[in-house]
Amino acid sequence: MSSLDLALSRQYNTPMSLAVVILAAGKSTRMKSALTKVLHPVAGRPLITYPLAAAKVLRPDRIALVVGQGQRAEIEPALNGTRVRWVIQREQLGTGHAVLASYPALRGFSGPVLILAGDVPGLQSATLKDFVATCAASGAPGGVLTVEMADPTGYGRIVRNGTPHISHIVEERDLPPSAVTIREVNTGILCCESAWLFRALKKIERQNTQQEYYLTDLAKVAAEEGHPLIAIKTEDAAACQGVNSRAELAEVNRLMRRRIVEQWMDAGVGFVDPGQVYIDADVVIGEDTVIGPGVMLKGRTQIGARCRIDAGAVIMDSAVADDVVIKPYSVIEGSQIGVACQVGPFARLRPETRLEADVRIGNFVETKKSVLKKGAKANHLTYLGDATIGERTNVGCGTITCNYDGKKKHPTIIGEDVFIGSDTQFVAPVRIGKGAVTGAGSVITDDVPAGALAVARGRQVNVKNWAKKRKR
């Protein structure tokens, strides 16, 4: 049994149990957005997925997610199948009212209830574990996670009574002059014993400027009962940053990106300029890979070991094997890149592109739904769509697969060891046999047998002295 389990079992004389309530009913008023606030992305994930993931690590008995009227249909797809107990807060009457609304979802539960905000993505599960254990061992009916901030604007202030306990919490809207200098603030994270929590919530009144039931008034109720809540301070102010505006969303994104980069540096990944890269939370990067400035690695991208991703490259939902070089300003989406390939500069790999080992894709080459087999090359100014390119085949500059006839897409199949002359156009569907050659400037409309030369262009005619006569 872990120290957390022991602390909880001693406090409540029951086997370890925990319930989590996540408050996600915000209306995005200050965000000025039609999108529900907790669905705004941070490092490639919706905000709500971060507190949900941190809660799941604690293995709670129940997770109750409090949302506003009509928000479940929007939020549920973002949960990726995570099971929660949905709580609909039909009237937006404050955070205290939101937690009280979760009572039916927690009926029959006995133990501590951890309350999280759905717009605080930086909190780590380890911090929450320590917080819950400390609350359970304190003898208080609950506790509040607090932090010191140089600029506490926007946060409720913690008023202590000279001990680790809280006298009350003052929301900024109701801040008296005596509390202006207080720098310890409420993070919105609480942990309270369930029976006391729901009994105390019924004592809260709406005597404030917002006419709302403040969750923070639990501190006042506890103090009046003679068993004040305990304040547990964390040193990581950045982890407690919430999101209520576009500016705060940008700041949280910056903080999360920095955290992600630091984690990958600790894992052996190199960065030319750590402050100038954008890496989503679900990206995986191999050891000794070096990332250049301005690179964006998005979605569920996987990068192998010993790769080099040069300046300005954008890679989305793609798998890149070991020892690959992605040259500057290449854009790769939904593709698979094999061992020791080189791509770019200024290449574009569209979805369902697959490069086998040692393939070369050069500048201003675009691929879509195509396979280039081992050792194939397309080095310049080429479009390959719905194509299969055989091993060691060389695709000349300016080649185009004409895959669309206005109604349907058609395939181009090119065998191994083929030499494609510059400016060849393949009018699909068409097959080119092993070892064949196409003449530069050809428009290929029929299959080409193995080993053959295909030339499809008008015969050159030279008219003597035509230019001299024209000048005269």
What secondary-structure arrangement, pairings included, does this model have?
Elements: H1 3-12, E1 19-23, E2 41-42, E3 45-46, H2 49-57, E4 62-68, H3 72-75, E5 85-89, H4 95-101, H5 103-106, E6 112-117, H6 125-138, E7 142-148, E8 157-160, E9 166-170, E10 184-193, H7 194-201, H8 218-224, E11 230-234, H9 246-266, E12 270-271, E13 278-279, E14 284-285, E15 290-291, E16 296-298, E17 302-303, E18 308-309, E19 314-316, E20 319-320, E21 325-326, E22 331-333, E23 336-337, E24 342-343, E25 348-349, E26 354-355, E27 360-368, E28 371-372, E29 377-385, E30 387-389, E31 394-395, E32 400-402, E33 412-414, E34 419-420, E35 425-427, E36 430-432, E37 437-438, E38 443-444, E39 453-454, H10 466-471
Parallel strand pairs: 1-4, 1-6, 4-5, 7-11, 12-15, 13-16, 14-17, 15-18, 16-19, 17-20, 18-21, 19-22, 20-23, 21-24, 22-25, 23-26, 24-27, 25-27, 26-28, 27-29, 28-30, 29-31, 30-33, 31-34, 32-35, 33-36, 34-37, 35-38, 37-39
Antiparallel strand pairs: 2-3, 6-10, 7-10, 8-9
